[in-house]
Amino acid sequence: MIETLKRAVVPPVSDADPFAPEVLLDPEPLHRALREAGPVVYLPRYDVHALARYEQVHAALVDWQHFESGSGVGLTNFRHEKPWRPPSLLLEADPPRHDAPRRVLREILAPPALRRLRETWQTVAEELVDQVLAEGTEFDAFTALAQVFPLRAFPDAVGLGPDGREHLLPYGNMAFNAFGPRNDLVAADAHRVAELSAWVNAQCAREALSEDGFGARIWAAADRGDLTYEQAPLVVRSLLTAGVDTTVHGLAACLYAFATHPGEWQRLRERPELARAAFDEAVRWQSPVQTFFRTATTDVTLAGTVVPAGTKILMFLGAANRDPDRWHDPDRFDLTRDPSGHVGFGMGIHQCIGQHVARLEAEALLTALAGRVEHFELTGTPHRHPNNTLRSWASLPVRVRRARRDTARPMSS
Asked: Global pTM?
């Protein structure tokens, strides 16, 4: 809990590097160690206070007044260093700068707009699954399904043209790497920063977008005066940055879960209305977004530890989502669990505004698979793609057994 300033507690200190390659590929051992060490742990390597327990992570996420996003949600402090690109008006801004962009997007992504997408996305998902199964029953579920479906569905909804979409995932990988320290992962992206940034920025221009997508509606909000014309392309960019990678890796987490928990796949096939809950449980269990930073606006006492003004806290969303004090048997993927309250989409005023879009994409793909696939299993070791912020995938080799007949049911309303 965030407290008024009282007698300070000296936090435990850890020399661990949460951005070390081996930790990025397998973060759970560090998460357990940090949770066990205490509610706040000091990491001198980066001069940050780490939060790995659910109670403290949740408290910091909802308290934007004391832990701001406007100084950057990565290690870089925008008070002292210039960001590599103009800050996000949603992710890296606080009220009042944050209010108008979020209000506009909340209206654009409201349930009526998503209902209009349901039938289209269901058709896209069914066509994709049929295409993949026609080519064989052994395939890479990451590259064939989890990557492909969001890159077909979501950019169409935003209003992007067909060319250049292969740049979206490398740009997102670069953007999420940039939230961490300037390590080898950031250096590996350096040669493409200008190229990828220029392409994405060009897609945010009004003339690059179709007249019937989310992007056009953002520009229409600027025409009404709900946004400025300077804000509009940045809001479109926020959709393109956060709306693809997290969904791709969330879907991959779902497919991995079902390949390793066959009983849960049968549960979903029997009750396809559980598709959205399955996606949330996969997001809790695997946490595609592992970490985010905040900056203390004043001296704040958190669980007895004073976090000095102007310093960073590092919130381990993935660790909070497996905190045994919050979740029963947290290391298990369980469709009987109520995963609501997980922090995989953040919490508070900065909670992911596109989370319902991601759930709709997951529902479409999982429903299409549930009617056509009887059984999933791994055929090899899945491989991760290291990223400073994301729990990313590189491959997910599976074998499936086709259902005897198509038992797909309509998506729930």
From this structure: 0.94
